[in-house]
Amino acid sequence: MASHFWSNTTVLTGRTMRHVTRSLDTIITTAITPIAMMLLFVYVFGGAIDTGTVTYVNYMLPGILLITIASGIAYTAFRLFSDMQGGIFARFQSMPIARSGLLWAHVLTSLVANAISLVVVVGVALVMGFRSGAGVLAWLAVAGILLLFTLALTWIAVIPGLTAKSVDGASAFSYPLIFLPFISSAFVPTETMPGPVRAFAENQPVTSIVNAVRNLFTEQPVGTDLWVALAWCVGILVVAYAFANLTYRRRTS
């Protein structure tokens, strides 16, 4: 029953959110790495990179936001792994609650925790000089893209969270996702890259997402980047959701 599922999920989300609020260092840690990268690139490398009329902090912020999300979902996998190893899933299976409620609680907690980290990073960027004349609709569009991207990566995180044999294994999957923005348009224009690297950069999901967010922030036409970004996010979400639920049923059956 839908009402049963939502009431169970709400209670279980409160449980996982309490774990986050009791260890705010996880959110702080999630934000520290992207902030450190932002400081390094803006104040050390930024002067050597030509981004035209766009200030470098404005240029690279979209990529930093994606790195923030990739850093944050590692903790989602860690929390799931901890619950699996602690027997929480098995214990809740013996209770009259929706089987998927605990899984969705971790997913919703990931969305909230990552949203907080993103707000912190944007706040630091504003202090560093980030400015945008984008209107409310553009900001809502950016928020929607980032939410969809977070949701897609969170369902990817569910898989190692359920199947990993160690804590390191649960979070290691996030490392390639954190470094993927470096081979994209996040920090330098793809035109400056050698041929094979440029071909990869221009045809991987991060570049279209970064370009769409950047154009929304700078009030430029988003062109096809927005639709390509949405297609990537939805495609990743659908595939990850299917595999995550299949893995969950196998582990809890």
UniProtKB/TrEMBL annotation:
<dbReference type="InterPro" id="IPR000412">
    <property type="entry name" value="ABC_2_transport"/>
</dbReference>
<comment type="similarity">
    <text>Belongs to the ABC-2 integral membrane protein family.</text>
</comment>
<protein>
    <recommendedName>
        <fullName>Transport permease protein</fullName>
    </recommendedName>
</protein>
<keyword id="KW-0046">Antibiotic resistance</keyword>
<keyword id="KW-1133">Transmembrane helix</keyword>
<feature type="transmembrane region" description="Helical">
    <location>
        <begin position="226"/>
        <end position="248"/>
    </location>
</feature>
<feature type="transmembrane region" description="Helical">
    <location>
        <begin position="27"/>
        <end position="49"/>
    </location>
</feature>
<dbReference type="InterPro" id="IPR013525">
    <property type="entry name" value="ABC2_TM"/>
</dbReference>
<keyword id="KW-1003">Cell membrane</keyword>
<dbReference type="Pfam" id="PF01061">
    <property type="entry name" value="ABC2_membrane"/>
</dbReference>
<dbReference type="InterPro" id="IPR051784">
    <property type="entry name" value="Nod_factor_ABC_transporter"/>
</dbReference>
<keyword id="KW-0813">Transport</keyword>
<keyword id="KW-0812">Transmembrane</keyword>
<feature type="transmembrane region" description="Helical">
    <location>
        <begin position="61"/>
        <end position="81"/>
    </location>
</feature>
<feature type="transmembrane region" description="Helical">
    <location>
        <begin position="136"/>
        <end position="158"/>
    </location>
</feature>
<feature type="domain" description="ABC transmembrane type-2">
    <location>
        <begin position="25"/>
        <end position="251"/>
    </location>
</feature>
<feature type="transmembrane region" description="Helical">
    <location>
        <begin position="170"/>
        <end position="188"/>
    </location>
</feature>
<dbReference type="InterPro" id="IPR047817">
    <property type="entry name" value="ABC2_TM_bact-type"/>
</dbReference>
<feature type="transmembrane region" description="Helical">
    <location>
        <begin position="102"/>
        <end position="130"/>
    </location>
</feature>
<keyword id="KW-0472">Membrane</keyword>
